[in-house]
Design brief:
The structure holds 2 protein chains of 2 kinds. Chain A has 5 helices and 3 strands; from the N terminus they run ααβααββα. Chain A is of the alpha+beta class. Chain B is globular and about 45 Å long. Chain B contains 4 helices and 7 strands, in the order βααββββββαα. By secondary structure, chain B is of the alpha+beta class. The chains are: A alpha+beta, B alpha+beta.
């Protein structure tokens, strides 16, 4: 589905929006307030980014009292994640660690 | 993608390591060293030995040593069993060490995936988070 691809790429192309999404991936569900506290933009701007992420299916919102909690929907990324690049990234990362280890090892 | 169901795919990573094969071999085959760069494990450099690699995301890989040629070749299966077929993974990882004038040429090939394993990256969804940095690479390539 090229359209779904386009939407994902467009949505994640913005660095601020991507940072918000990454934070949700790393740290789990969070409120707009908590996200704003760590973002470099205003709360309305964070809300707007979250709205776009939601349209792309990348986040889900959950209302609890007056708070809205957002969580990342990693499954939405599957169209753009090919396992070969995923695994290649994994090994590149591990080989970085391997080289660090080799530097620390004695002969 | 119109690929035959039997087709396998491979990931190949190559790197010039500025240390001799003997030292690299230790890092590839000694459990406490493997843990430092790859995952927790109960590896033994013995053909036929079954072991697990335990990712820090909680995923456990089932492995079996296929080939051991000291300082040259190491090969083992890298299987991840998951109820969801999309995450199931059956693959073979082979490390090949070639001495160079300044160290070692390290080649890693992981092969044996089926085309339907789009998300088979060695872990379930949580594992993906660990490899998040890769997204930027994916995006950069897509531009």
């Amino acid at each position: 589905m090229p359209n779904a691809h386009d939407l994902l790429f467009r949505t994640l192309a913005d660095p601020t929006r991507r940072a918000i999404f990454e934070r949700l991936c790393r740290d789990g569900e969070q409120t707009v307030g908590a996200l704003t506290a760590r973002a470099k933009v205003s709360q309305p701007a964070v809300s707007k980014h979250l709205g776009l992420l939601k349209e792309a299916g990348l986040v889900r919102d959950r209302h609890e009292g007056r708070q809205t909690h957002y969580s990342a929907q990693l499954g939405a990324l599957s169209p753009l994640i090919d396992w070969t690049s995923q695994m290649a990234g994994f090994w590149q990362n591990r080989f970085d660690r391997l080289e660090d280890l080799l530097k620390r090892m004695d002969q | 993608m119109n690929q035959p169901a039997t087709e396998t795919r491979a990931v190949i990573i190559e790197r010039e390591i500025s240390f001799p094969p003997e030292k690299l071999w230790r890092a590839l085959t000694q459990p406490h060293l493997i843990e430092e760069w790859l995952m927790k494990n109960d590896f033994k450099p013995v053909v036929g030995h079954s072991f697990n690699l335990r990712g820090d995301w909680g995923g456990v890989l089932d492995c079996e040593v296929l080939a051991v040629e000291p300082n040259r070749t190491l090969s083992y299966t890298w299987n991840f069993v998951h109820d969801d077929a999309a995450y199931n993974l059956r693959s073979v990882v082979t490390f090949t060490l070639t001495p160079t004038g300044t160290g070692t040429h390290l080649r890693m090939e992981q092969s044996g995936f089926r085309p339907d394993q789009k998300q088979a990256y060695g872990g379930a969804q949580a594992g993906w988070q660990k490899f998040f940095a890769n997204l930027e690479q994916v995006l950069a390539r897509a531009d």
